Amino acid sequence: MPRPRWSLLCLCLSPLQVSFFAAHVLVAQPVTSPVDAILATLKSDNAWTLAQQKSICEIPSPPFKEAARGAEYRRRLEALGLRARVDAVGNVIAERPGSGKGPTIVLAGHLDTVFPEGTDVRVREDGKRMKGPGIGDDCRGLAVVLAVARAYQRSNPAHDARILFVGDVGEEGAGNLRGVRHLFERELRGQIDYFISVDGTGLGLVSRAVGSNRYKVTYKGPGGHSYGAFGIPNPIHALGRAIARIADVQVAASPKTTFNVGVVEGGTSVNSIPFEASMEIDMRSESAESLRSVDQAVRRALQEALDAENGRWTSERAARARLTMVIDTIGVRATGAQNDSVRIVQAAFATARALGFSPTITASSTDSNIPISLGVPAVTIDGGGHGEGAHSLNEWYEDGPNGWLGPQWAALLVAHLAGIGR
C-alpha cells in the first residue's frame, strides 16, 4: 500500500517543521463526523423532507382508519434500507439495530388525523405555504421521522443503541393514545429507554404530561309527545341542568386545570320529549390530584342535575318515567411527574442550544403521556417551521428560513441519547 503523500513530505522536514505541518495542515482539515454529516444532509436535502410532508398528507388517515397511510409509511421506511413491520394495532415500526449494549430509543410521529372519511386532504401550495388538513399535525412529525431515518442510513454512524423509527396510530381524540399504549403495554413492553415524539410545528418542547378524563354522559327516559306527555322528566332538560352546573365548577389556576362540554346530542323532533340526550365532557390537568378534584365536581353536577329533573315532576306518571344516567368513559390519558432535570429533557435543551436556539417548555397532552406516566423518560418536540390552524380544514405550514432545524434537533437528540459523538 503506498504511503500518504504528507508522510513522504515529512521525511524531508526537521522535527520542528513536521510538528508545524501537522498542526497547521492536518488539523485544519478534520474528518467530518457522522453526526455532522447527518446534520448536513438534513439541511441540504430539506426539499426532500417537504416533499414527504406534502405527499404523506394527501393519503387519508381518519380516526381508526390509518391503514393506507401506514402501509405507505412502511414502504418509505423500507425504501431507506430499514426493516419495517406493522404491529397488531397498526403502528409502523422500523429498526436500526445497534450492538445491543446501548439503550432503546424511539423516535415517533403519529399517523392519524382528526378528520373524518371523505375529507378533502389535497395539499395546496400558496407561495411557500402549504395548506391542507393535518399538514402540521402530524404530517410534519412523520416527515421529520422519515428525514432523520434517511440521514442516519446515509451517514451510517456506528452506535450501541437500538433506534426505532415509528409511525403510531390513535394519538388524536377518541384514539386515546392507543398506538403508544400498545407499544408500552405489549409490543415493546419493558424495552424502551427513551421516547421522543415529534408532533406539530415550531421549536417547542413538551416535558410534562397533561392528563385527561373524557366521558360520554347520557340521560335516558321513555320520552313522549311534547303536549300529550307533558309533565314527565325530559333528558334534554336534565342535560341543560348538568351543563349549567358544570359551567359553574371552580378549578385551580395553577396547575392549570380545565373542563369542557364539546359535543351535545339528542332528540328526534321539536314536538317530542326525547328518550335520551347525551354530551361529551373533557377534563384536563397536569396534576393528577387536580384532575381527580375536577372529575369529582363534574360527577356531582351530573347527579344533581339528574335528581333535580326527576324531582321537578311529582305526578304518579312522572314517577314511572324517571330518568336514568349512564356515564361511559371514552378516554383516559394519564398524567405523571417528570422533573425537567431528567436526562432526556436536559439533552433536548443541550441539543437545541448546540443548534443555536432555546426551546420554550410546556405541558401538553401528547403520545409522551404514556411513557411519562410509566416513569419512562420522554419528550415531545416540535418539527420546525411554523404553522397554524391545527385540527381545522384551514391548517397551514410554512418552512421559513430554517425549517430544517426541526429535523436536525430530532436527529441530534437521538445521537446524544445514543452516545454518538460529533
Give structural notes:
- This protein has 2 domains: 34-210 and 335-418, Zn peptidases (Aminopeptidase, 3-Layer(aba) Sandwich); 211-333, Alpha-Beta Plaits (2-Layer Sandwich), CATH 3.30.70.
- With 422 residues, it is an alpha+beta fold.
- The model is unreliable at 1-29 (pLDDT under 50).
- It is built from 13 helices and 18 strands.
- The two termini are 30 Å apart.
- A hairpin with a 7-residue loop joins strand 17 and strand 18.
- An 8-stranded mixed β-sheet has the order 1-2-6-3-7-16-8-15. Strands 4-5-18-17 form a 4-stranded antiparallel β-sheet, with no helix packed on it.
- It has helices spanning 5-10, 15-26, 34-44, 46-57, 67-79, 139-155, 178-187, 235-247, 288-312, 316-320, 343-354, 369-374, 405-418; strands at residues 83-86, 92-96, 104-110, 124-126, 129-131, 162-168, 194-198, 205-209, 211-220, 224-225, 257-266, 272-273, 276-285, 324-333, 361-364, 378-381, 386-388, 396-398.
